[in-house]
Amino acid sequence: MPGLDWEKLLKLQFKDGSFLFSPSSTAFAFMQTKDENCLAFLNKTVQRFNGGVPSVYPVDLFEHIWSVDRLQRLGISRYFQPEIKECLDYVYRYWTEDGICWARNSRVHDIDDTAMGFRILRLHGYEVSADVLRHFEKGGEFFCFEGQSNQAITGIFNLFRASQVMFPGDKILEDAKRFSSNFLREKQASGQLFDKWIITKDLPGE
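Structure for Terpene synthase N-terminal domain-containing protein, as requested:
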């Protein structure tokens, strides 16, 4: 890819040495720049996975949030209260007023992890402001990532779930509920519920 300004691109490098927690992107950056921080991230990741690498690493906030959600949805969360508290304390430690993404210490945030994290933290008594969702709203519509041209079904579904823990005066959650419910109904009516992230077979039933 000729013409890339690596002096500028390296300023987007994350604290762990990666580019958006992507081993492949980081490997390409290392091939072009020989940056030692890139190499350190790659070595650490290869050692962590015994010679192989996943497509994204780490995904620590995603793992903690979704583990709690699945335990609750299975109806067995009461057997894992200490573990759940540990997970939520971890997520809250890295919570920011701009939101979160799938990994800690990211400058990129997404509505999927933010909405899910917000809902679960609020349900468990953690002090989190609904204003965090304002960073994913523009012109009355909500998006998963800034600059994204279309919305992901699962991200908007989790936004709808987050709107169910509304406090009086949470106008952003009123807006979120209105937008997400209309969006999901339209997608359901047109049979467009496909999403690459969906593993459940009964999203309409939810």
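The CA atoms of residues 27 and 34 lie 9 Å apart.
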